[in-house]
Amino acid sequence: MGERSINDGCILDYQVKLLAEKYQSVCDHRDPRLFTEFLVLGYRQTTLSSVGAEFTELAVYAKVCLGMIITLYDDLADNPRLSRPQLLKELYRLNIGEHPVLRETGPGDFPLIELAQHLFGELNRALSRLPRQEKFQNLLAFDIRHVYLANQYAELMTLQPAIRNLTESKLLGPYNMGMVAAGTIDLMASPCFDGSETGRLREALILGQRIGRIGNLISTFQRELDEGDLTSELMLHPSGVGEAKQQLLLELRARLSSLHSASAWARSVDLKSYADGLSGLFNLHQKMEGII
Q1: Does residue 95 contact residue 144 with C-beta atoms inside 8 Å?
Q2: Rounded distance, CA 135 to CA 206, Å?
Q3: What's residue 3's pLDDT?
Q4: For the chain, what is the radius of gyration of the CA atoms?
Q5: Structure pTM?
Q6: Would residue 266 be called left, alpha or beta, if left means φ above 0 and alpha means ψ between -120 and 50 degrees?
Q7: Is 212 helix (H, G, I), strand (E, B) or coil?
């Protein structure tokens, strides 16, 4: 990825197109617009205001790499047709700054391993150009392990549906969105962020991650149902899917309000702008239902 890509949105779109083509050459069951449109637009909308203008597009590219990794792992966990639990045990060894030698666990593993390694390679290369990469690298690795935990729970629900419950789904499921991890990438791209606000900002990112999860749950439910995916939180609500959706919309409004209230303490980040971006992300989820 050339130096021009740091500032040039057209170059970013071209790089994402190449990455999506690489992904599709291995896994072609996803609509490429998930990567070239939804991820790019969604990450742009929810980029923290603290990100330096000269690093914005590079941070978005890094987050698209993360989003593709999450998509790949998610499909191998909860899509019954694609489920590969043994392979996932190997893939969970990958993380930023780590380059383990992975072994094949079954036929057809090599292209998937190579794709995961390529995506992490692109992520690492993008992060290395961000000004505060070293400061937040350990935190991002921790956040990615949380993504893996959510994925492992989806695996368990797929293998043993009887363990499914609403409490754990609400607790662990949102980490599958990777939005706390995406926020940490933004901090790497924020040269003037006040580090003393990191803890409280992470609380705001957890709120945002749940808001993102609500949009995802509603917009992907039918696709997951058609695939035989049993992991959706909507399936576990005692009053049925319709009532579950209504309660999620009420929760969405309450959490957006909480984010607006949290803006009172924030000096380095405009949390009202972040909340507005999350509202836009919810609308994007609805607009692209059937595509994502």
Answers
A1: yes
A2: 20
A3: 43
A4: 18
A5: 0.96
A6: beta
A7: helix
Residue 252: strand, helix, or coil: helix
Whether the CB-CB separation of 178 and 247 falls below 8 Å is answered with: no
Indicate the pLDDT class of residue 7, thresholds 50, 70 and 90: low
Task: Count the alpha carbons within 13 Å of 238 in the hemisphere toward its beta carbon.
Answer: 3
> For residue 195, what are the CA distances in angstroms to 2, 63, 114, 217, 266?
30, 21, 36, 33, 12
Check: CB of residue 125 under 8 Å from CB of residue 1.
yes
State the Cα–Cα distance between residues 12 and 19, nearest whole angstrom. 10
Percent of the chain with pLDDT strictly greater than 90 = 93
**Can you read off the two tokens belonging to residue 255?**
């959490």
Conformational region of residue 262, where left means phi above 0, alpha means psi within -120 to 50, and beta covers everything else: alpha
* DSSP state letter for 101: P
Span 111-124, pLDDT tens digits? 999 999 999 999 99
Q: How confident is the model at residue 264 (pLDDT cuts 50, 70, 90)?
A: confident
**Phi and psi angles of residue 84, each rounded to the nearest 5 degrees, phi first:** -140, 70
Count the residues in the chain: 292
Q: CA-CA distance, 40 to 169, in Å (whole number)? A: 27
What is the C-alpha to C-alpha distance for residues 225 and 232, in angstroms, rounded to an integer?
9
**DSSP assignment letter at 176:** G
CA distance 288 to 37: 9
Alpha helices in 39-84 (DSSP H): 40-45, 56-78
Burial of 108: CB neighbours in 10 Å, binned 0-12, 13-18, 19+: exposed
Q: CA 192, CA 114: separation in Å to the nearest integer? A: 36
In the predicted structure, residue 8 carries a pLDDT above the cut 80: no
Quick check: 40 and 12 in contact, CB under 8 A?
A: yes
